[in-house]
């Protein structure tokens, strides 16, 4: 750990922020990255949006060190950015990626699920539902450029996109590891898994809490392409070009036809889903399991 201005800052976080600062330093090379003169990045503290209006594409980068865990703030900022892009006719597609080195998203922020009030759990779960519904049903083409580990809720984010490109590195594991924490993925995560990899593979992965290394993730169909780490974003953009070659109205109607029944299962029972999450996560046994897991993570660091 490094101590900075009285703040306990993990060395890994500094390394990672070095990684995204390096990205910021490359701002001068924005033209090379497709950002023309006068085109400005926008976004918020935890979500960086790099627009390429000429291509109709925005690269949306998660930048919430150390591990892009889905805090209430990150969920909220991501929903706002997606809403803005969805409502802006300039954009037809987004590439969702991480601005940190080695981690796409660590999934739900476990500190949001431990030792908080039922009202907080309910607010948190509503924000997660909101993000999932918005991303899953977005009219934009969404390509996940998965440049780091993506367990549990991180995997859900990827599955909500239309296409997934994963970096070929042993640390880039992806999958629904919830049961390993002693918790259960919500039914809408289960539905996304089933829709992507089929019932049998989803059942095994969900029960065993499997985190797939890249080659396995490709084999089961959890991701669509595995490429060297430095080619993840360019490959995602190339995939995007293929998807954008299809007329929007036809693609959007087809996407809706494929996804709406799954989304409706949650949309029609959102409040019941919130209540079952709150009562589940408030159980003493679940609180203990989550605390123990968090402590193990911290000790490992
Ligand atoms: C009856 C039915 C009812 C249905 C109800 C439904 C209930 C559903 C409930 C919950 C669903 C949950 C889904 C989830 O997403 S749970 C979260 C699962 N995530 C994980 O297991 C990932 C844990 N993290 C890791 O494996 C690693 O951190 C990794 C992402 C691989 C990165 O590794 P590394 O680079 O080595 O970084 P560190 O492990 O050292 O972590 C750095 C610091 O970040 C903290 N951390 C990590 N992950 C989280 C997290 N998810 N939330 C909060 N904090 C996290 C970690 O403790 C380190 O902190 P510190 O620096 O203070 O030591």
TrEMBL record:
Coiled coil: none
Entry keywords, A to Z: Acetylation, Fatty acid metabolism, Isomerase, Lipid metabolism, Mitochondrion, Transit peptide
The keyword Lipid metabolism is assigned to this record: yes
GO biological process, one term: fatty acid beta-oxidation
Cell location: Mitochondrion matrix
Cross-referenced Pfam families: ECH_1 (PF00378)
The EC number(s) this enzyme carries: 5.3.3.8
Pathway(s) annotated for this protein in UniProt: Lipid metabolism; fatty acid beta-oxidation
GO cellular component, one term: mitochondrial matrix
Record-level Gene Ontology MF annotations: delta(3)-delta(2)-enoyl-CoA isomerase activity
Catalyzed reactions: (2E)-tetradecenoyl-CoA = (3Z)-tetradecenoyl-CoA; (3Z)-octenoyl-CoA = (2E)-octenoyl-CoA; a (3E)-enoyl-CoA = a 4-saturated (2E)-enoyl-CoA; (3Z)-dodecenoyl-CoA = (2E)-dodecenoyl-CoA
Enzyme class: isomerase
Quaternary assembly: Homotrimer.
Biological role: Key enzyme of fatty acid beta-oxidation. Able to isomerize both 3-cis (3Z) and 3-trans (3E) double bonds into the 2-trans (2E) form in a range of enoyl-CoA species, with a preference for (3Z)-enoyl-CoAs over (3E)-enoyl-CoAs. The catalytic efficiency of this enzyme is not affected by the fatty acyl chain length.
Family statement drawn from the similarity comment of this UniProt entry: Belongs to the enoyl-CoA hydratase/isomerase family.
PANTHER family assigned to the protein according to its UniProt record, in alphabetical order: ENOYL-COA DELTA ISOMERASE 1, MITOCHONDRIAL (PTHR11941:SF45), ENOYL-COA HYDRATASE-RELATED (PTHR11941)
Name listed for the protein in its UniProt record: Enoyl-CoA delta isomerase 1, mitochondrial
Source species: Galemys pyrenaicus (Iberian desman)
């Amino acid at each position: 750990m490094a101590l900075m201005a009285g703040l306990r800052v993990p060395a890994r976080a500094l390394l990672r922020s070095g990684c995204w600062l390096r990205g910021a330093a490359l701002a001068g090379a924005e033209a090379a990255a497709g950002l023309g003169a006068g085109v400005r990045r926008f976004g918020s503290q935890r979500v960086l949006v790099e627009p390429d209006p000429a291509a109709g594409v925005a690269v949306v980068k998660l930048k919430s060190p150390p591990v892009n865990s889905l805090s209430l703030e990150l969920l909220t900022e991501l929903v706002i950015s997606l809403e803005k892009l969805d409502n802006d006719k300039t954009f037809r597609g987004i590439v969702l990626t991480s601005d940190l080195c080695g981690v796409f998203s660590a999934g739900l922020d476990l500190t949001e699920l431990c030792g908080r009030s039922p009202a907080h759990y309910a607010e948190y779960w509503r924000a997660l539902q909101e993000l999932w519904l918005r991303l899953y049903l977005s009219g934009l083409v969404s390509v996940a450029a998965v440049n780091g580990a993506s367990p549990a809720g991180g995997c859900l984010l990827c599955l909500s996109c239309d296409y997934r490109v994963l970096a070929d590195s042993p640390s880039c594991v992806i999958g629904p590891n919830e049961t390993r924490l002693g918790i259960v993925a919500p039914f809408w995560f289960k539905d996304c898994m089933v829709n992507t990899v089929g019932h049998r593979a989803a059942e095994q992965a969900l029960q065993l809490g499997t985190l797939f290394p890249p080659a396995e993730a490709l084999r089961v169909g959890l991701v669509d392409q595995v490429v060297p780490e430095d080619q993840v974003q360019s490959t995602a953009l190339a995939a995007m070009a293929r998807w954008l070659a299809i007329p929007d109205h036809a693609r959007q109607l087809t996407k809706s036809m494929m996804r709406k029944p799954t989304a409706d299962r949650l949309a029609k029972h959102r409040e019941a889903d919130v209540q079952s999450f709150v009562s589940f996560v408030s159980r003493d046994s679940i609180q203990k399991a989550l605390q123990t897991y968090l402590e193990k993570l911290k000790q490992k660091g």
